[in-house]
Structure formats: C-alpha cells, structure tokens
C-alpha cells in the first residue's frame, strides 16, 4: 500500500492550525483504503516537532531537516519534499490551501509530474476495483457551483481548505523519523524577516474594515484607515487592493486570501463577489457601503448604505 501523506505546515509561529483538520481529511481516505497515514513536515528545525504533530489516526511522522532554509525558499524545500515522495510513493498528498504550501507544492507537482487539485473543501472516497478513488469537491465558476474532480494519474496532490472541517484529536504515539534530505543550494536569498504582530492581525480582530476597488479613488483609502483607527479596527481589503499594493497580501480577505471571523465587518466599495464573501466566516454583523444599489454585497450584509463612500466616511469621521 502506497499510503496517504498529510503535510504539516510549520511557520515562525509553530505548527499551523490547518494540521489537525488536514489529518481528519486524511483519515477519511485511509478509513476506506486501509492505507497508512503519514505526516510530513519540513524545514529548519522540523526535527523538534515530533511531539507536537502526534494526532489520532497518524501511523508515522517524518521530519525532514533542511538546515538554514526559510519557508519562502520553496526551490530547495520542493526538492527535499520530492525526494521523500519518490521514496515513499504516496498515493495521495494532502496540503493546506495556504499561500506557502500552494507555492511549495506547485513546484513539487511540476518536478514529479503529479496531478494537483487546488482549494478543495471536501473529499469523498469510494472503492474502485482493487483500489480507491478520491473524489475532490471544490467551488468553481466563481463559486457558483460545486464540481467534483478526479485525478487520473497514480499520484495526486490535493490542497484543502480546512476552516469548516472538524479537526482530528491530538495525541497518539506514532513513530517519528528525522531525515536529512539533500536539497542542494537555493536560488533565493532571504535578506531578513519582519515579525508580524499576530495580536493586531486581521485573523484575531473583532472589528474589521474592508476596502474594495472604489477605495483607490481620491483619498478614500486614507479616510478608511482613519475611520479604522478611530474605532480601533483592523484594515483589510479585497483582491484588487492587494494586487495593486494598497494593502499587504496577508490582509486580503477572500477565497484566495485570508479567512476572518470578526464580530463586526464594515465594507466600503466592495461588490460582494463570492470570492470575497467566502473569506468571512462566523456570524458577524456586516455593514456595507456601496453606491451601486444592486451590489451583491447587500444580499450578504445586515445593513446596507447606498451612497458614495467618501461622503459616508466624512460623516463617520466627524
């Protein structure tokens, strides 16, 4: 049996919160296939995480030490991951749908010629002849419909959105193996790190003010930042704001960005496409300002203000 692999993402803050939900997805496959479930972690200091990666259902933990490698040096990390995959010949590799892991495993998929499906939300495993097939369910066509994807080659990489998955239980006593793969030299030089204060990040913020494309006009974005400072809120935005450099990438809310769970969310100039609204979870009070009375955001919000954002912000700042 080839086995199923779950990739444990390790950042400067430790083991990612995506890990235990990902194990639950992996177990949903192995419960049907009868394969072993292996956890793989990689990076500088990965060998220190054996105890923290113990989870119910995991049969083996492999920790690949790559001394001196930073998480962004995906060229050398991909070579190290690929060497483990070649040796173990995993049938399925489950990866969190995060920016770091998607970047890393896109390289791995190309190196090993493995089929890859991105941003899946659920899995359905069925017996098929002597083996199993893993149906991957994901939103498509602007998230208006759900589609089922099947990878037809012998191996598959699946990036999973884990926000709505019940996590596996921590614990267990899986054997831990520390390896030192030959990753070679990196073409990427890391000049330094800037620590992000997670206490002030949009992940933990109770009040978030989100800016859309309309905020790029006049001095609207400066007003949005002033309003957010006035009410002690975090500033976020839609993808156009990140793509054009108005906000940091980690402050982009949406399907291709960050998921937030605030108590209150203001939106200014955001149309309300599902790619954005999928990034707002929980049950926040949403207050939307848009000059288009037919904007889709109004069907998502509790309170709708049909007006030019500049005039609304002027009033709020007074």
SSE blueprint:
Elements: E1 4-7, E2 10-11, E3 14-15, H1 19-33, E4 37-43, E5 60-65, H2 74-88, E6 92-96, H3 99-112, E7 115-120, E8 122-128, E9 131-140, E10 145-149, E11 156-160, E12 176-179, E13 207-211, H4 220-230, E14 234-237, H5 239-243, E15 264-268, H6 274-277, E16 285-290, E17 303-306, H7 309-317
Parallel strand pairs: 1-4, 1-6, 4-5, 5-12, 6-11, 7-11, 13-14, 13-15, 15-16, 16-17
Antiparallel strand pairs: 2-3, 8-9, 9-10
Biggest beta sheet summary: 7 strands, parallel
Residues in β-strands, percent? 25-35%
List the secondary-structure elements in sequence, H or E. EEEHEEHEHEEEEEEEHEHEHEEH
Flag low-confidence runs.
none
Number of DSSP helical runs: 7
CATH topology call of the largest domain: Rossmann fold
Average pLDDT metric = 88
Structural category is alpha/beta
- Write out the CATH superfamily name of the largest domain: HUPs
Helix content: 10-25%
Strand order of the largest sheet: 7-11-6-1-4-5-12
How many separate structural domains?
2
CATH architecture of the largest domain: 3-Layer(aba) Sandwich
Task: Tell me the distance between the termini.
Answer: 67 Å
The CATH class assignment of the largest domain is Alpha Beta
The global form is elongated
How many strands appear in the DSSP assignment? 17
Radius of gyration of CA atoms, rounded to a whole number: 22 Å
């Amino acid at each position: 049996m080839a086995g199923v692999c779950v990739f444990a993402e390790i950042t400067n803050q430790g083991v990612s919160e995506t890990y235990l939900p990902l194990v639950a997805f992996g177990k949903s496959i192995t419960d049907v296939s009868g394969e072993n479930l292996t956890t793989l972690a990689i990076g500088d200091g990965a060998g220190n995480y054996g105890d923290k990666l113990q989870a119910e259902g995991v049969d083996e933990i492999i920790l690949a030490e790559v001394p001196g490698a930073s998480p962004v040096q995906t060229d050398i990390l991909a070579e190290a991951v690929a060497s483990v995959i070649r040796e173990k010949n995993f049938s399925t590799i489950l990866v969190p749908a995060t920016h770091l892991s998607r970047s890393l495993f896109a390289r791995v998929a190309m190196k090993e010629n493995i089929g890859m499906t991105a941003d899946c939300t659920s899995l359905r495993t069925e017996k098929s002849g002597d083996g199993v097939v893993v149906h991957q369910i994901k939103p498509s066509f602007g998230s208006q419909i759900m589609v089922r994807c099947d990878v037809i080659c012998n191996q598959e990489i699946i990036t999973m959105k884990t926000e709505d998955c019940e996590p596996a239980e921590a614990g267990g006593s899986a054997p831990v193996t520390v390896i030192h793969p030959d990753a070679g030299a990196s073409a990427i030089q890391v000049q330094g790190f800037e620590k992000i204060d997670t206490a002030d990040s949009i992940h933990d913020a109770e009040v978030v003010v989100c800016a859309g494309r309309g905020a790029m006009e006049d001095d609207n974005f400066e007003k949005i930042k002033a309003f957010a400072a006035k009410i002690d809120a975090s500033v976020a935005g839609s993808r156009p704001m990140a793509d054009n450099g108005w906000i940091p990438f980690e402050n982009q809310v949406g399907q291709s960005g960050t998921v937030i769970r605030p108590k209150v969310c203001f939106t200014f100039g955001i149309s309300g496409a599902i790619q954005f609204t999928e990034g707002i979870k929980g049950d926040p009070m949403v207050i939307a300002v848009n000059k288009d009375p037919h904007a889709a955001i109004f069907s998502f919000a509790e309170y709708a203000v049909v007006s030019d954002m500049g005039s609304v912000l002027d009033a709020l700042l007074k």
